[in-house]
């Protein structure tokens, strides 16, 4: 028989304690986010549908993005037990300098549309955490303003090859003068991918309003107040534009670009050069032979060619072929620190994340980006510890199976 008695109120007070109420709504929301997927859910609730869909969506049927995420989900880790993992080192070499974590913030366009704090907020978080940040040609904060916002951050500039080469030369000169130490050339946009979510939503700069977008905006008054009470939203490195994103890309970017253009690039940029958008082993070999310091295996987050190769699957063969002379990075589909650890175990020197930090930005501005880094860094450390690995350089293909 169980003996029962009336509870003593003093004992109950020790067992049941109310969580202190935090009056800061943003901090309260972000504290509940335990994963990047949680930040995504917050972002979906905090921003208009067209803004969220621009970040979240991909090209055509979005098969490439789903395949990339499914590939990460199907990985299998192989932990080693009875290892001394009291100290875990997450630093890694990126272009000859140590980064505090094995990822950088990828270049993204329209960032101030996600949240008015935009690129400056992302750069400040990168500065605090020792993470490189790449500013996009399609950024909504100027090269000089990003440099002023985070003078101690390690900053890279992402460039598209334009029909007007002189515009590209001007951007490279400005980036160099502002202290950006590497150039990322994106090579997978001869034309814009067909991003059907954006077309259906009338996504453009400035926004093209319809009855549906006005109704959706009424559900997100804080976002609209920020939009209309802060400096006008525009491409900081481009002239004003009145059409859709796809139309802008098609008008600016040069489909005649060839390997010969890398020579032009080297004439105008004497720092480290990263080629982003590599999707075959043959192309990785070509740009490595042409002098690239790093290649990014990427299908543009699934936003260009649908049914493109899954970048993660290319990592082992590309690392074996060029990994001694050129660094191999990978992006697309990364949603957790475990994904990052797996990519490095398969042979990547480092990774790039885009949507992961943008979900944080939409969920809570600079503090949301901070939360995204906290989540990813915690997952990286925990995964390494459970695998029995002390340092990024110790990760190897024996730690993971790519199914």
Automatic annotation (TrEMBL):
Quick one: which residues bind glyoxylate? 54, 160, 195, 300, 303
List residues of the FMN hydroxy acid dehydrogenase domain: 28-403
Write out the coiled-coil annotation as residue ranges.
Answer: none
Q: Which cofactor does it need?
A: FMN
InterPro entries in the record: Aldolase_TIM (IPR013785), Alpha-hydoxy_acid_DH_FMN (IPR012133), FMN-dep_DH (IPR000262), FMN_HAD (IPR037396), FMN_hydac_DH_AS (IPR008259)
Name a Pfam family for this protein.
Answer: FMN_dh
> Which SUPFAM superfamilies does UniProt cross-reference here?
FMN-linked oxidoreductases
Positions binding FMN in this chain are 107-109, 136, 158, 186, 276, 298, 354-355
Give the UniProt keywords, A-Z: Flavoprotein, FMN, Oxidoreductase
Recorded GO MF terms:
FMN binding; oxidoreductase activity, acting on CH-OH group of donors
Active site as annotated: 300
Similarity field? Belongs to the FMN-dependent alpha-hydroxy acid dehydrogenase family.
Protein name per the record: L-lactate dehydrogenase (Cytochrome)
**Species this chain originates from:** Serinibacter salmoneus
């Amino acid at each position: 028989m169980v003996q029962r008695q009336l509870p003593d109120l003093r004992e109950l007070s020790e067992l049941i304690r109310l969580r202190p109420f935090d009056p800061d709504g943003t901090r309260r929301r972000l504290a509940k986010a335990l994963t990047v997927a949680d930040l995504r859910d917050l972002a979906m609730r905090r921003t208009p549908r067209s803004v969220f869909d621009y970040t979240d969506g991909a090209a055509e049927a979005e098969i490439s993005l789903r395949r990339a995420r499914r590939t990460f989900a199907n990985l299998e880790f192989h932990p080693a037990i009875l290892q001394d993992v009291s100290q875990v080192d997450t630093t890694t070499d990126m272009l000859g300098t140590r980064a505090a974590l094995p990822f950088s913030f990828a270049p993204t366009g329209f960032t101030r549309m996600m949240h008015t704090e935009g690129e400056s907020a992302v750069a400040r978080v990168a500065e605090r955490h020792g993470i490189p940040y790449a500013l996009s040609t399609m950024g909504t904060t100027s090269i000089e303003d990003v440099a002023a916002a985070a003078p101690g951050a390690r900053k890279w500039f992402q460039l598209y090859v334009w029909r007007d080469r002189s515009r590209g030369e001007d951007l490279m000169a400005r980036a160099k003068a502002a202290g950006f130490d590497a150039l990322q050339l994106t090579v997978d946009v001869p034309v814009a991918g067909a991003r059907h979510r954006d077309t259906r939503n009338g996504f453009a700069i400035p926004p093209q309003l319809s009855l549906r977008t006005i109704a959706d905006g009424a559900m997100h008054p804080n976002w609209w107040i920020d939009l209309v009470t802060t400096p006008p939203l525009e491409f900081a490195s481009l002239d004003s534009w009145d059409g859709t994103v796809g139309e802008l890309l098609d008008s600016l970017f040069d489909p005649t670009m060839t390997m010969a253009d890398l020579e032009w690039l080297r004439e105008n940029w004497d720092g480290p050069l990263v080629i982003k958008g590599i999707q075959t082993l043959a192309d990785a070999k070509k740009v490595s032979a042409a002098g690239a310091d790093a290649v990014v295996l990427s299908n543009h987050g699934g936003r260009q060619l649908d049914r493109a190769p899954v970048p993660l699957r290319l990592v082992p063969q590309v690392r074996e072929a060029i990994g001694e002379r050129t660094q191999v990075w990978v992006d697309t589909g990364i949603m957790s620190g475990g994904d990052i650890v797996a990519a490095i175990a398969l042979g990547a020197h480092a990774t790039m994340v885009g949507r992961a930090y943008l979900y944080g930005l939409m969920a809570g501005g600079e503090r949301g980006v901070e939360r995204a880094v906290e989540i990813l860094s915690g997952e990286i450390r925990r995964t390494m510890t459970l695998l029995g690995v002390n340092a990024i350089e110790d990760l190897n293909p024996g730690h993971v199976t790519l199914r």
